[in-house]
Amino acid sequence: MKKILLTGGTGYIGSHTAVELIREGFEVVIADDLSNSNIDVLDNIQEISGTRPSFVRLDLRDKKGCQALFAQHAPEAIIHFAAKKAVGESVHQPLLYYDVNLNSLLNLLEQSEKYPVKGIVFSSSCTVYGQPEILPVTELTPFQAAESPYGNTKQICEEILHDNCRSNPNLNAISLRYFNPAGAHPSALIGELPLGVPANLVPFITQTAAGIREELKVFGDDYPTPDGTAIRDYIHVVDLALAHVVAVKRLLENKQKNNYEFFNIGTGKGYSVLEVIRAFEKASGQTLAYRVVERRAGDIVQIYADTSFANSELGWKAERGLEEMMDSAWKWQLKLKK
Ligand code: UD1
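^ thats the input. predicted complex w/ uridine-diphosphate-N-acetylglucosamine below
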């Protein structure tokens, strides 16, 4: 059985990917510091997939801990999810973001050179494009200056991977540039678990509908879009998890065209904030309390993916629509409340 290391594997996207990898017959080792996730997630991964992944509690900035992790588990491939990801927080604590996001990757790469690791799949983000001039964005759309320290860490990490692949032909890497992940596993056993007040739209919506938040604030309705609210490409977290399975297989089966590759992982369809609210209301049967307020600093107007390269080259395509995202997110929220 091929052993895959998932850093950040108890987190939102990591846990869904663990389930899909186990289903495909991979052995999953999770390393997570539990700073933004809960150990109980392991029980739920086990309940869905029938297998409990190995678990190592580790902050990847800890070099010695990384050495021990690789000595114990020697993975054949790595999926590196573990990172800090709140745009607003990164503006206030940039050093923390550079420390965690860059040093974790550097330590992983350093260890990867000492073991026969085939490659690494990296959690990148559409944030690397900034506010693009032409939509949809293809993989060749040039990076704009990052809008936040968080976005900058994703750009820098991609550059580190690219440079490292150039100098080390034995190491392979694939960056997956996620658009906006949403939804939860259909079992409602795993999903997004935001600590404190959610910064992201979908968990804020479900918490408002559940009565945990008073109302949703819609950040701006004076954008140059059809209904005035900002547009994003929301992708179901299970589709996103499946993209990781395909990427890992591509590494392990030597199917890469270059030893550093990068793909847009979205649906190709943009939805406005108001469209998301309507889809939620339809899926849940709830009426959502919301109010339009000022634009949020740092938000871009709109972004959505051209996914044709990922579709043709990876043979992967997002299959779940917005309503399925909202339906599963709501079921997950109801489960959390119990
Ligand atoms: C951003 C990043 C994404 C990153 C994610 C992590 C960009 C383009 N995207 O996503 O790469 O992975 O953060 O956190 O930089 N909204 C409201 N009210 C709310 C919350 C959000 O109206 O209470 C609106 C936002 O203004 C935005 C949309 O909903 O238009 C989505 O926001 P959010 O879920 O926070 O994601 P992004 O900011 O797009």
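Residues 85-87, 125-127, 180, 199-201, 204, 216-219, 230, 232, 273, 296, 299-300, 303 surround uridine-diphosphate-N-acetylglucosamine (CB under 6 Å).
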